[in-house]
Amino acid sequence: MYKIAVIGAGKWGTALFNAIKENNKVCITSRTSRDIEDFVSLEKALECPYIVMAIPAQQVAQWLDTNFKNHNQKVLVAAKGIEASSGRFLNEIFSTHIDETNLCFLSGPSFASEVMEKLPTALVINASNTQTAQEFSKFFPSFMRTYISNDVIGAEITGAYKNVIAIAAGITEGLGLGQNAAASLISRGLVEMHRFGVGFGALDETFLGLSGAGDLFLTASSTKSRNFRVGLGLAKGKSQVAILEELGEVAEGIGTAYALHTLASERDIYLPIATEVYHILEGKNPQKSLQDLLSR
To answer: What is the rounded CA–CA span in Å between residue 64 and residue 24?
Structure first.
């Protein structure tokens, strides 16, 4: 009988599946059938006592409402994002279906391609229930070092926000603005992320650790990042639709940019970089956004 199920067979879900199955009995499922060993039906996956959820953040609420059956499973959420339509964090969405003592949230710098290659990776498992986090920690292979934190909201905000800064970094690269500008953008992005996070009770140390600075520096500096590539496309004047067609996969920073714009407006929080990313996604000229950022 399978002990752990991975739900979501995209690149990240598949990478986690391959890593965790080194030492555990693991199955995987997704919306469409895949030719993967140990691929099972959703019904069978939901019977497992431990579940890793790797479906895109913008699909989580609808998926839970439509598909989830609570058997008191323990769930590790591997998605990163804020729901664009409501501004809800993933812990708010999941807690309507699962007791928070059974919920954990994965954060930290982690490209799926490098996990697939079994390259060293350090991650954080965030949970209000330390015991649940420790249980999930034991499932990871030796090349993946896991730390445990109870700052769930901090991990959620950093994991979501860094994707928006990565879009901005891709725009900076696409406009040929140089390394000075890139470093300035990323460091100011960390300040902006922190300003947003403390308003929701996130801990300062989270922003300087793997979940914050670590994930931000990785995602905002490499073409391996889907969100960085979104920024490159925007700098070339491409539309959202065209960019996503080229990517062939989800870029969580787009939906999160819309969510941040809504939350910033509601709470009167100053988020200049995220705001400009939102306006560029809505059609504003990237060069004009640059001028507005420099002259603010």
So the answer is: 25
